[in-house]
């Protein structure tokens, strides 16, 4: 690996989203170098190629194009973000094939669903929806992702039940499911052990207290997608051994604490070693400043003159402060950006109605209605083709793509014929 | 009310233009058919400006050519000349003096066609197909504006190989219109940008789309003082929005209306919705014409908010339309518009087929209302 490249990627680590399957280092290098000069035309061309391929595909495996497109997007936009259109793509891909039974247990399709769920505010709902639709019921990866979600929320019982369900459905590959289930069990038992130890050491009941220096609490169950906290319950050391006891084990709902080295709980103090005596009373707070002792108010002595002597108001200076003549402060901050043309900030558009799950269900409902001929309206144009992928196409673009493809084929044929005739002439 | 009178003295149907009982859906209105039409779908139509004597019609097509016809007072059409591009022609416009025609093509170039010498030369280059082309005549400059799928809007003075100016757009240009000093560009993902052209072109305002579906066509309208004051925007889902730039009362003055739909009142069967392919304003009366993939054209009065007339249904979509300079002639082109590509999910077969090479006659040089 080149030294320069190494530095490059070291410098922009925080802009790289983790991927389940990891990243190809060459793609990462490319993406990071391209990133510096904006959305390059190469990326645009590749995206355009995928978009047109989505619409022109004529084989019997349309999922393949989507799968490659989404994987390309993940690798090309390591920082995620809006311009990657990943969430839109995932949603469209997932919606596109809900009716196609042959894909329901295709590992690629199930992977797309899992990625989609992880990008949603409520992944559990998506997994339940998948279950209801019968998608991925024999795929181990679904149960693993589902269980991990429960585990992240601290619901170990449910997490285990999900694995049981997976075993019942004979999900494949069985080994993988078994292995992940075992590691879950290991983690849970470790957790339980930790809690028992904690109970030994802390006799005083845990009270909710204000914690400082922690991540902000996010509302609801929305996951902070950009942050990867490896503190608190999220720590899962796969290898054996005790978890670092410096990390306090708090409930999932509360904020996780910053890891602070605690001498008294240092891991060197193994369970067999004698412990320090616990405090009998909570330490007095030394953080408060300017604390006034309560006093009687009635005994306060009045001043002699009946009122306190006020400090005289500051008189105006008898001299004129020197002001540089040229130093005329501008009356207004000059506005360099014409507010009408300001493209940097724009008013936040009202977000699309409902959650992704709701949209999925609505789409499903609409399709049912359309099949029964109940829908109020029907579009008399190739809506699927126009609105496939991450961007829309217009009729002319569809037609132009066909045209270019045909031209390319024709020129190939012509050149092929020429080559052929040339070689035959040589003979 | 006789919208389509016979005073101009041509058209074959006489007074009964709309009442004809013919079953021929190829030309149900019995309009004049233009002789020697292009061999493939027609993408654009434009009539010569008022500075030229007579009426000349140009039309660009997917057969890579641009043709010019003279429409005579007796209704006869005479093919005059044609020029070729190396790709389908997507848009065309006239210069203000009528001596030149500018054409935009999928081959990523725009050409200037001098009608006097019948010479064409390249005047513009983009990184993608050029979807819209317009001539801008300002007091202090004149230029050609091109909008492309490469997400740029460029301005060319026709003499230099480099653009006078290149403005980036958030998305691909889908349609545009120019009435000095205003230009409006509608883009993919429902983008809508208004430009002002005084002194030099600059972005004036971005507008949140009044429509919920893909933009397909846009046309600027003028107020009583003959100044551009707003635009009509058509979408692929049978709807047109009338939008003023600075309305006294935005909530009341701006509105949308449905068009190019079937079974409007029948609730038992689903309503069929078609794309609005083009909008054109009458140069005198300010009424507007819309044409759709349903093969119909309609005339509307945006001030009275009423529909004036709808045509019979043609056997093919109508892809383009335009009025001549005094509004006596309305031309429309019926051709295959690609909207009927596999609309059935069950048939993932090839899109092309016999429908692709459809003959596209420009019909309809016939008198419009007074």
UniProtKB/TrEMBL annotation, chain A:
Residues 50-208 form the BUB1 N-terminal domain. Residues 265-295 are annotated as: Disordered. SUPFAM superfamilies: TPR-like. Transmembrane segments: none annotated. Pfam families: Mad3_BUB1_I. InterPro entries: Bub1/Mad3, Mad3/Bub1_I, TPR-like_helical_dom_sf. One of its GO terms (biological process) is mitotic spindle assembly checkpoint signaling. Residues 286-295 have a biased composition (Basic and acidic residues). GO terms for cellular component: nucleus. SMART domains: Mad3_BUB1_I. GO terms for molecular function: protein kinase activity. It comes from the Eukaryota. This is BUB1 N-terminal domain-containing protein. It comes from Echeneis naucrates (Live sharksucker). The lineage of its organism: Eukaryota, Metazoa, Chordata, Craniata, Vertebrata.
From TrEMBL, chain B:
Residues 15-37 are annotated as: Disordered. It comes from the Eukaryota. Signal peptide: none annotated. The keyword Cytoplasm applies. Its main location: cytoplasm. WD repeats lie at residues 82-123, 123-166, 276-310. Keywords: Cell cycle, Cell division, Cytoplasm, Mitosis, Nucleus, Repeat, Transport, WD repeat. GO terms for cellular component: nuclear envelope; spindle pole. It is found in: Cytoplasm, Cytoskeleton, Spindle pole; Nucleus. Coiled coil: none annotated. The keyword Ribosomal protein does not apply. GO terms for biological process: cell division. Belongs to the WD repeat rae1 family. This is Rae1 protein homolog. It comes from Echeneis naucrates.
């Amino acid at each position: 690996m080149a030294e320069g490249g190494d530095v490059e990627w070291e410098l922009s680590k925080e802009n790289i989203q983790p991927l389940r399957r990891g990243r190809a280092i060459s793609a990462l290098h490319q993406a990071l170098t391209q990133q510096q000069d904006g959305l390059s035309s190469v990326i645009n061309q590749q995206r355009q190629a995928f978009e047109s391929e989505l619409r022109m595909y004529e084989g019997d495996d349309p999922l393949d194009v989507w799968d490659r497109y989404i994987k390309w997007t993940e690798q090309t936009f390591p920082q995620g973000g809006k311009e990657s259109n990943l969430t839109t793509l995932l949603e469209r891909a997932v919606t596109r094939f809900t009716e196609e039974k042959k894909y329901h247990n295709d590992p690629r399709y199930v992977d797309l669903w899992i990625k989609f769920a992880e990008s949603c505010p409520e992944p559990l709902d998506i997994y339940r929806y998948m279950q209801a639709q019968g998608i991925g019921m024999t795929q181990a990866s679904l149960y693993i992702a589902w269980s991990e979600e429960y585990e992240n929320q601290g619901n170990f019982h449910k997490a285990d039940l999900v694995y049981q369900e997976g075993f019942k459905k004979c999900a494949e590959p069985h080994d993988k499911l078994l292995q992940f289930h075992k590691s879950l069990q290991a983690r849970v038992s470790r957790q339980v052990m930790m809690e028992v130890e904690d109970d030994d050491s802390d006799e005083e009941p845990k009270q909710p207290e204000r914690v400082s220096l922690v991540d902000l609490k996010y509302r609801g169950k929305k996951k902070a997608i950009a942050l990867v906290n490896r503190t608190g319950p999220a720590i899962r050391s796969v290898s054996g051994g005790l978890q670092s006891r410096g990390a306090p084990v708090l409930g999932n709902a509360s904020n996780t604490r910053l890891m602070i080295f605690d001498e008294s709980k240092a891991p060197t103090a193994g369970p067999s070693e004698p412990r320090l005596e616990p405090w009998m009373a909570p330490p007095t707070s030394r953080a408060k400043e300017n604390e006034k002792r309560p006093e009687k108010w009635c005994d306060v002595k009045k001043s002699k003159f009946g009122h306190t002597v006020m400090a005289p108001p500051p008189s105006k200076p008898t001299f004129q402060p020197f002001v540089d003549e040229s130093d005329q402060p501008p009356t207004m901050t000059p506005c360099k950006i014409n507010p009408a043309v300001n493209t940097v900030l724009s008013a936040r558009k009202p977000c699309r109605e409902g959650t992704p799950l709701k949209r999925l269900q609505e789409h499903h409902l609409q399709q049912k209605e359309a099949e029964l001929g109940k829908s109020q309206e029907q579009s008399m144009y190739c809506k699927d083709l126009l609105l496939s992928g991450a961007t829309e196409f217009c009729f002319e673009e569809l037609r132009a793509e066909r045209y270019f493809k045909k031209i390319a084929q024709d020129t190939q044929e012509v050149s092929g014929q020429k080559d052929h005739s040339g070689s035959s002439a040589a003979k | 009310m006789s919208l389509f009178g016979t005073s101009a003295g041509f058209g074959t149907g006489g007074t009964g233009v709309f009442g004809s009982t013919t079953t021929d859906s190829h030309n149900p209105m019995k309009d004049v058919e233009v002789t020697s039409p292009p061999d493939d779908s027609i993408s654009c139509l434009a009539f010569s400006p008022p500075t030229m004597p007579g009426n000349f019609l140009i039309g660009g097509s997917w057969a890579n050519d641009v043709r010019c016809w003279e429409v005579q007072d007796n209704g006869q059409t005479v093919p005059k000349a044609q020029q070729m591009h190396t790709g389908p022609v997507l848009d065309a416009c006239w210069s203000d003096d009528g001596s030149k025609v500018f054409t935009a093509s999928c081959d990523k170039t725009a050409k200037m066609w001098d009608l006097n010498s019948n010479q064409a030369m390249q005047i513009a280059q983009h990184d993608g197909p050029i979807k819209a082309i317009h001539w801008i005549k300002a007091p202090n400059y004149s230029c050609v504006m091109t909008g492309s799928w490469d997400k740029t809007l460029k301005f060319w003075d026709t003499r230099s190989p480099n653009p006078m100016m290149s403005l980036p757009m958030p998305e691909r240009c889908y349609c545009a219109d120019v009435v000095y000093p205003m230009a409006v560009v509608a883009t993919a993902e429902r983008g809508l940008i208004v430009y002002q052209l005084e002194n030099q072109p600059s972005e004036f305002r971005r507008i949140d789309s009044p429509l919920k579906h893909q933009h397909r066509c846009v046309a600027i309208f003028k107020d009583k003082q003959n100044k551009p004051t707003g635009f009509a925007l058509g979408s692929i889902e049978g709807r047109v929005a009338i939008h003023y730039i600075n309305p006294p009362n935005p909530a009341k003055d701006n509105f949308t209306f449905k068009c190019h739909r079937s079974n409007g009142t029948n609730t038992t069967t689903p309503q069929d919705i078609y794309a609005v392919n083009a909008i054109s304003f009458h140069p005198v009366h300010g009424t507007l014409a819309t044409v759709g993939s349903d093969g119909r054209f309609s005339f509307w009065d945006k001030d009275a908010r009423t529909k004036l007339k709808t045509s019979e249904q043609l056997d093919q979509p109508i892809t383009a339309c335009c009025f001549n300079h005094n509004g006596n002639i309305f031309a429309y082109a019926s051709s295959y518009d690609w909207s009927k590509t596999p609309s059935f999910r069950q048939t993932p077969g090839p899109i092309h087929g016999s429908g692709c090479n459809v003959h596209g006659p420009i019909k309809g040089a016939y008198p419009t209302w007074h």
